[in-house]
Amino acid sequence: MKPGVIVSLAVGIGTALMVAGCTEKPQTATARKADATAYSGSTVPGYSAAGWKAGDKESWEGQMRERNKGQNEYGR
Questions:
Q1: For residue 5, is it within any domain?
Q2: How many domains does the chain have?
Q3: Residue 75 sits in which domain range?
Q4: How many Å is the maximal CA-CA distance in the chain?
């Protein structure tokens, strides 16, 4: 092959690869829409903490405070 043909072929392949990289779908962030409030609870019994009452916001907040205390590095 002639050097000009090789260069043209390389440029063509490179251009095709660059154009193929531009076909990615846009990734846009959307707001998460919850079906229910966080404190409404789960219907599966294994997913609830002991002492927590489903649907009670104050009980849920108390459980979250207790959980956060266990994750605090200063309290360990």
A1: no
A2: 1
A3: 43-76
A4: 81
